[in-house]
Fold this sequence. Notes:
Elements: E1 6-11, H1 19-30, E2 34-40, E3 53-56, H2 64-79, E4 85-89, H3 94-103, E5 107-112, H4 120-123, H5 126-139, E6 145-148, H6 151-161, E7 166-167, H7 183-187, E8 193-197, H8 206-212, E9 220-224, H9 230-239, E10 245-247, H10 253-261, E11 265-268, H11 275-278, H12 283-290, E12 295-298, H13 301-310, E13 313-316, H14 321-333, H15 335-351, H16 354-377
Parallel strand pairs: 1-2, 1-4, 2-3, 4-5, 5-6, 6-7, 8-9, 8-11, 9-10, 11-12, 12-13
Amino acid sequence: MDRSKSLLILTFGDVIFDQRLRRTVNTLVDDRWSVKVFARKRFKDKNSLQVPVVRYQPIFTSGPFAYLEYNIRAFIAVLFNSCPVICCMDLDTLPGAMIAKVFRPKKIIYDAHEYFVESPEIRGRSIVKKIWNLLGDFFIPRVNQAYTVGEALADIMGKRYGIHFDVVRNIGAEYQDSHEASSQEILNLSKPYILYQGALNVGRGVESLIESMKYFPALNLVIAGKGDVEEELRKLVHLYELSNVTFTGNIMPQELKRITKEAWLGVNLLENKGLSYYYSLANKFFDYIGGNVPQLCIDFPEYRILNEKYRIAYLVSDCHTSTVVDAIKYLVDHKDEYQRMKENTVEAAGELSWTVEGQRLLGVYHNFLNNQDKQTVA
């Protein structure tokens, strides 16, 4: 094994449901990288990645001490790990690695899942945002390679931090034919269902989506994921006395693919709560396409560009309940247009595939290796 292709990935989350991390690991392993992962243990499920993974049980699960604890542990992990290359997934993993680099030579690759300092959880908290801005402004310009999820964010962060960001989009791995149980058997639903998959966090329009279900008793809503506002969402279901809303919690990727593939409609709504959301390209957007599922999607720039090309989504300008209700009603009433959107996902899925995007990921890492070779020769 080429030691220069020995990589330690740092993630603040867990490895169980992080599909971007899993795709990255599998693609790099296929390219003969030796990969290890350092993560927090947030779920009881056993790790199924076929690489060495250290998952520690955090003392602090949220707040500033959770980040401090992680980066102290990450510092130790990097310092005493033989891997010469460290991949930091988002700004919250970068300080520990960069400080360890002072004591032991390491090369740092920065995988920015989002514009971290513009995320909704940080944007409205001035002191917290100032601290993360200071950390980002100091550490990010000093990484050896960087990439993010979309062209707009690459341009914005490139100008902010004075370095080049490559782009590797959040396109899911291809769907495989399977003899596993159908989604109807997994969910025990007898009606067509609308699917929201992803984190249950602020600003994702799930509240309006739940309220909208009052007007569509012939449809179910499946909410696949967990997050900070889950309890509030469950209270809304109880408040509206809804029997057609199902929470699945976090589910394994292959089961999620099956549920996605058999959905009537996927939902990807976001409020404009900062540049991280406004210029996002979410996993779910591509997952719905891969499952040949039309989607109700927010009309933000990156989604608009792709929808103008493929026509696979019904775009809405906001997340208000009335907007969501009107959009769902339109798709229910206009079956021909819905069917055209569904047919269009077939072409889109062929072009927006991990077979293609995975090569972009490898291109980033190959460029990184080539740059290191040139520096060695110089």
